[in-house]
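Dear Dr. H.,

I hope your travels went smoothly. While you were away I took the liberty of generating a structure for the chain from your last submission, since the lab meeting agenda had it listed for discussion. I wanted you to have the full record in hand beforehand rather than looking at slides cold. The sequence, exactly as received, is reproduced here:
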Amino acid sequence: MKTLTLLRHAKTERDSPSGRDFDRSLDERGCGDAKRMGQEIRKLGLAFDLVLASPARRAVETVEQVGGLSPEYEDRIYDASTGQLLEIVRSVDKRVERLMLVGHNPGFALLAAKLTDNQVGDVPTGTLVAIELPIEEWGDVGDKGGRLVRFIKPNALD
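The corresponding predicted structure, in token form, is as follows:
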């Protein structure tokens, strides 16, 4: 059994000073939401063998505000399709039992829906989605078969 946790970046500013989507920062609400999510992760005792995060500024800032994640930055997560996200997951070493990805919609919502037979709908900013997968190796991840075990929205932590 493997566990895949998806953490969508927290709420961001509408535009970046550079005009590039990649450079958008968290806004005040996003910083607070990410900190609260970090507290919840620690309260629940969640731990991850590997954290892969998008290098986009808003994902990096989310990781920093959550705290304690020690991610590896994976360029392919930014603007990834569901298929590209599946490729990333399938490439993870089989010794990793608990994997977290930090990144973006629409890829994250679509991936969660695909793995859980549409048990997941909208994934708002800052939301954590954890899915148990009945597999021995990440390379075996396919459609459906996953069980949604956590769906935590930041506004539920207030």
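Two observations you may find useful: The longest strand covers residues 2-8. The radius of gyration is 14 Å.

With kind regards,
E. W.
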